[in-house]
């Protein structure tokens, strides 16, 4: 009998603002900019793309495009999305 599996999606496990902050912090601390943009995408999906887009002042379509694999969001977009996710960018 074959075992049925489904792809793991971390977004399904980011249930609280604290979960999202810790996830983004880990991505920023251990990855590169591509990893961080991917993490923003995952966190935005966890919170809800429509809600994040509204809070960031961008359209949902442009948010999907900016945070997609190969997307190249500008710093303003990254900053606004981070803020919409309850985070702030800082230099340490």
UniProtKB/TrEMBL annotation:
Organism: Pelovirga terrestris
Record domain HTH cro/C1-type: where: 49-92
MF terms (GO), sorted A to Z: DNA binding
Highest taxon of the lineage: Bacteria
Cross-referenced Pfam families: dnstrm_HI1420
Cited SUPFAM superfamilies: lambda repressor-like DNA-binding domains
Protein name, entry field: Putative addiction module antidote protein
């Amino acid at each position: 009998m074959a075992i049925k599996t489904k792809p793991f999606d971390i977004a399904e496990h980011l249930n609280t603002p604290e979960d999202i902050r810790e996830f983004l912090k880990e991505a920023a601390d251990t990855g590169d900019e591509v990893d961080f943009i991917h993490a923003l995408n995952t966190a935005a999906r966890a919170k809800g793309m429509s809600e994040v887009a509204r809070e960031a002042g961008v359209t949902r379509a442009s948010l999907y495009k900016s945070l997609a694999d190969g997307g190249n969001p500008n710093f303003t977009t990254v900053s606004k999305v981070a803020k919409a996710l309850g985070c702030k960018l800082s230099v340490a």
